[in-house]
Design a protein that fits this description.
Elements: H1 8-26, E1 36-40, E2 55-58, E3 70-73, E4 91-95, E5 101-107, H2 120-133, E6 139-143, H3 146-152, H4 155-158, H5 161-171, H6 173-178, E7 183-186, H7 194-206, E8 209-212, E9 216-221, H8 224-246, H9 256-265
Parallel strand pairs: 7-8
Antiparallel strand pairs: 1-3, 1-6, 2-5, 3-4, 4-5, 6-9, 8-9
Length: 268
């Protein structure tokens, strides 16, 4: 299959994805083919003039604003650990001008599904929204952080975002500092569906992270490593909460006065 050459800027972004994949795998957040990472490369890649020689994959219901956009993304059935070695995993795709499909311009040497992840529509909708809003976010990370997923099984937190955020912020000052807009949580929705994509988009417009109930978490940032950091910090708060609960006591967390003083000190 024909393939484009990767310039220095693109290789750097793939390296960041590889490093992120390593962390996700080591944390146990990426079982089998669980989780996805995508990066908007539109400004970094020059599309070939003759696209007909590249493999074409039809798509449906993708946002019209994605026409001509190019992404590095994990392939369907591919493991996050396949992406740990730079240039071995993932693929680079260009959505056609009619938004009827995408061409695969490059793909890693590791075995994959030769098409983008089934959750690609969620990623594309987020990317388009970030571009249209003027955000510098160019990466989306979806992964399965154990403690955040565990909390989403608890109806006390799964149905009360305000309580969830207040508790997690109170577990560790860094959660309040680095996840200032908090966490949104969706009710269980079919993975890969347009409905889940729309819920995720709505959540990320007002929060830093979206928890897919009983499934995982999604965040966007300037690059893959920064998106990972958001989820990592939030999950630390969840881990502390669960550790306290499993030890037999309800943690007090930061008081309202302590929280207010912290927010004032760091202008949150």
């Amino acid at each position: 299959m024909p393939s484009i050459s990767l310039n220095k800027a693109v290789r750097l972004e793939i390296d960041k994805v590889s490093e992120t994949g390593k962390y996700l795998w080591e944390k146990g957040w990426a079982e089998k083919n669980g989780g996805n990472i995508s990066v908007n490369l539109t400004e970094l890649v020059k599309a070939p003039k003759d696209l007909k020689r590249f493999k074409y994959v039809p798509i449906k219901e993708y946002p019209k604003g994605s026409a001509g956009m190019m992404f590095f993304v994990k392939r369907t059935g591919e493991r996050i650990r396949d992406m740990v070695r730079p240039k071995k995993g993932g693929c680079i795709v260009r959505i056609d001008d009619e938004v009827r499909g995408y061409h695969i311009l490059w793909e890693g040497a590791a075995i994959g599904g030769s098409r983008a992840t089934s959750e690609f529509i969620s990623h594309v909708m987020i990317h388009v929204d970030k571009v249209e809003s003027g955000s510098d976010h160019r990466a989306v990370v979806h992964t399965h952080p154990v403690e955040l997923i565990a909390l989403s099984h608890n109806p006390k937190y799964a149905h009360d975002e305000r309580l969830l955020n207040r508790v997690l912020w109170g577990m560790l000052p860094e959660v309040r500092a680095h996840v200032p807009r908090g966490i949104a949580i969706t009710q269980y929705t079919m993975p890969g569906s347009k409905e889940l994509a729309e819920l995720t988009l709505e959540g990320l417009r007002r929060c830093d992270i979206v928890i897919w109930n009983m499934h995982g978490a999604t965040a966007s940032a300037r690059d893959a490593l920064a998106a990972f950091d958001l989820i990592d910090v939030a999950n630390k708060g969840a881990a502390i909460l669960l550790r306290c609960l499993s030890s037999g006591f309800e943690p007090e967390g930061m008081t309202d006065q302590e929280m207010a003083a912290f927010e004032k000190q760091f202008d949150l």
